[in-house]
What we know:
Structural class: mainly alpha
Strand content: under 5%
Order of helices and strands: HHHHHHHHHHHHH
Radius of gyration: 27 Å
Oligomer: single chain
Number of domains: 3
Shape: flat
Distance between the termini: 81 Å
Number of helices: 13
Amino acid sequence: MTPNEVIQLLKLIRGFSPNFAVNEGTPTAWASLLADIPADVAAAAVRTHFASNGPWIMPADIRRHAATAAGVLPPDVATARAQAIALRTWYGPAGTPLPGPSTRPAIHPAVQATINLVGIEQACSMSLFDWRTAYAPRVAEFEQRALAPGGIAGARREIAAPPPRPRPALEAPPAPETFEKAVELRSRRVADLARLDEAIASLGGDVRFLLPKNTNPTSRFGQAALRHRMRDYGADTDIDEAMRRARLEIARHTDSAEAADFEARRAAALRALEAMGDDGTEATA
């Protein structure tokens, strides 16, 4: 919208709401926030707003209407879950080749981000409540980008971008030649998962610092998210390195037990240094 178009828009708003305050700086301020919104879309947003809402309207209301009209905002919880299930169905059984990319179902970037966090299997099997808990922060992150000035074009680019490669867990494993190899492979996976869960359990209550805010570590979503976080740290190849990186992340939070333990060790080391003489030996009384 141009400044002149914004002036016409403000006149339209005053027609619906005579008490709407406008001063000499209002057109410039509104134009800076609505520069990428077409005048007819903004006018439609104003009419829709006053047909169903209260007397006050802000640029944010117009931007949300425009983003909704453009079809870039994340779908509701049920639709998002249906997209995840459709994607899992498209992948097919493990061990079978992936279908052609052109047949891949449309997945909103916020849905894809949630799948990347918890894994496709967990995304399809968790309760709707846990799905909502995982999905809501991804929605907020995407909307923050899409509703910012110029964000609708960026959101369109995100939606049109080529889909990411599947996580390693989704890639078809080589078909075992014998039943014994299949049993061995399954046993190894069970053992690796048990070892990963044991490592996570050793972190105690501090694991909450590895999860999105207000996520319950004991829920199915929380457990799946912790496993994926540890795998992102390299747990599949080096569990010790993954634990080191996890502890470093936890220690960044001053109210964690890991941070308190670090400070205690640091204080003990400082006391030991202070107790040493100039020649590096322990000082005597």
